[in-house]
Task: structure prediction
Amino acid sequence: MKLSEEIIAKVKDAADIVDVIGETVNLRRRGQNYLGLCPFHNEKTPSFTVSANKGIYKCFGCGKGGNVFTFLTDKFGMSFIEAIESLAAKYHVELPKDEQGITPKDSKRSQIYDALEKTEALYNSLLKNKDGKIAYDYFKGRGFDDELIEKFRLGYSPDDWNFITKTLSSSGISIDILEEAGVVIKSDKGNYFDRFRSRAIFPIHDFMGRVIGFGGRSLTDDKNSAKYINSPQTLVYDKSKVLFGIYEAKNSIRNKQYSILTEGYADVISLHAAGFTNSIASSGTSLTQDQLRELKRFAPKLYIAYDGDSAGQEAAERAGEMALQFNFEVFIVKIAEDDDPDSIIQKYGAEKFEQLIHSAIDFFDFKITRLKSGFKSESAGEITAAVREMTKITASIPDEMKHDFYIRKISESFNLTFSQVELLYKEKEQIRKKTRADESNRNEQNQAVKKATETIIDQNESQLLSIDDIFYEEKLVLSYALLGLNEFSDLMEHFEIGTETFATDVAKLIFKVIQDNSTNDDILGTIINSEYVPNEYKDIIITISIKDEVGSENWELKFGRTEFKANMKKVITDCLMKLEKRKVDESLIQVMNLMKKEPEEIEHLKRFQQLKEQAMKLNNSLMGIPN
Result:
């Protein structure tokens, strides 16, 4: 089913692009726009800009740009229809139904989300009857009250081989979709059975709150059954990219400006119950770069609260080293050997854990202590190896301003001499140099691939589309045209603008795209959503729209309108005169070259004099001098 432009516009108008992108990116207001670290590439300095007024975003680092729909399609792999469905549900916009009364949820991904949502609701509902009492008592025993159970949508899967298969397949969800959602398994004989049987259920949500998978804890003493099992990799669930509890914790992380990273589902929920609502966990896997990259969007500080046993401390060591590479400020929460965050809350309460947070140690100190604890004789070889390991970690930190601080720590911890510190600096620089060389090679390879795959504007042209080829005055006129149908009509009515108005080929092409898509008031949205407009054109159009080319505090006043204002008319008039002046100047150069080649040709001289007179009149007009 195809949605009308009216419905698409209604959803777009209802959706708050800052709110939607803000669920993934830590946005800060900068003038009229919002700025943050780009979610599409790894960057140290924010270059990702969101315009709430125009409903668009643009990264001036990697070039990604679009509107609220393209953000969801690019970031979360949704189809265009799925993005509309998701936003319609979030902002309570009712979508139309077809003749069969079905909304346009026709993609496999949408069907999987639907199956998972119904499965979650089913698991959750079972806690409220006698069958689910075993799981309900388990959750209560962990200190989870009813409010917390609902917050995390906890549930119970009964001891039945075919409960989900029977219940959901009878409600119209195909068995193939249930298998692809990871909630049922197909046996070698072709039979289907429930993946999570007789287990307490921990739903896993993405940033937007959609259920994408489950973790299940065994409620029996069966030693042949794993204590925890998790959803498999599916079309919507990639455990290496998901942090358990991130949807429930993201606002708290933003507010507190730090996150608490734990190992397990129960740890997260126990900490939330105790008031530590900025707690999250890796989703059934060791911490990954993708998880850290997402977490960095919310806060720069990370407290690692892994189990106190040797395995937990080794995992904390690996996680801390990786987090430093993303420029996190990393602290290790010291937990006793037989404890974990959940058991601390259960045995000692929130106050004890608060003390542990306050006494958490800097990761660098934690790492040095662990290295020293492994010394057998404090030999020169052991110390040198430890110093080299710490130097390598220092070199991996992106912020070089921190390097002196950490090198001083290494020097003091291992009693290094001045000459040894000099060698340490040299070794660090060699590591950095090699890292930069590797990054440069990768960037060159990526650029080569990009150049090889970029779309050419026209099959007869070898030049690629570039915003740098558009004159300043052209950007102003195009930016005004993109504001809406009224503004576009202003240009056509008062100035009779056409492609010939513009001086550069790129501006002519962009104007043609605007003209072809001026079918409704949301010209910019129509272009971004169009499958017929090449991405190169869209990138330039988004950049023109978001960049506030005038650079004046009066820009919004000039472009805000109920009717075509006189001051805006003057801005456009001046732009068009400057463009005309550029054309005249270019023609003058061409005529002068002809005069040099053919000095006897009188027509060249006449043309030269006409152009000079035209240029003078344009100059006078621009300066306010009567002609």
Observations:
- The chain has four domains: 5-90, 108-366, 375-439, 467-623.
